Amino acid sequence: xxxxxxxxxxxxxxxxxxxxxxxxxxxxxxxxxxxxxxxxxxxxxxxxxxxxxxxxxxxxxxxxxxxxxxxxxxxxxxxxxxxxxxxxxxxxxxxxxxxxxxxxxxxxxxxxxxxxxxxxxxxxxxxxxxxxxxxxxxxxxxxxxxxxxxxxxxxxxxxxxxxxxxxxxxxxxxx
Length: 175
Description:
By secondary structure, the protein is of the alpha/beta class. The chain has a single domain (7-172), classed as HAD superfamily/HAD-like (Rossmann fold, 3-Layer(aba) Sandwich). It has 8 helices and 8 strands. Helix 2 (43-55) packs parallel to helix 7. The longest helix has 13 residues, at 43-55. It is globular, with a radius of gyration of 15 Å. The mean pLDDT is 93.
């Protein structure tokens, strides 16, 4: 495991793949009295996913849970490649690669817990969030400094965009 960004691998990323609970969220699940579920999403992670779209970097989501709040958030962000309720994340990864034509070695996956291991072992740029399980960190080429749901996705997206040489061009639009 390394905490130094492997920029050579990051430059080759053609698709960003994310787990949700513990990566795109802080892992908290709020359940109301009527059983409705809500989640907390970090705005900088959402902005990072919008930057991916501007840079032409597709994003996919593979999650073991099913959540209508997630579908609302991902629709707002324009993310089309979504697999919820995955019981076999390796099989879900194969579906994503078939849909996109992008090879596993061109994929960065960000995970946090054991169900992500089958993906992390099969992608070119495996990433663990700072508060990931030790086994996930051991299987990853990079571990974020930020916690899941607290800017970890933004950290990885910034790294990829810098490695691809498009970060400053995107930033210039806001200066």
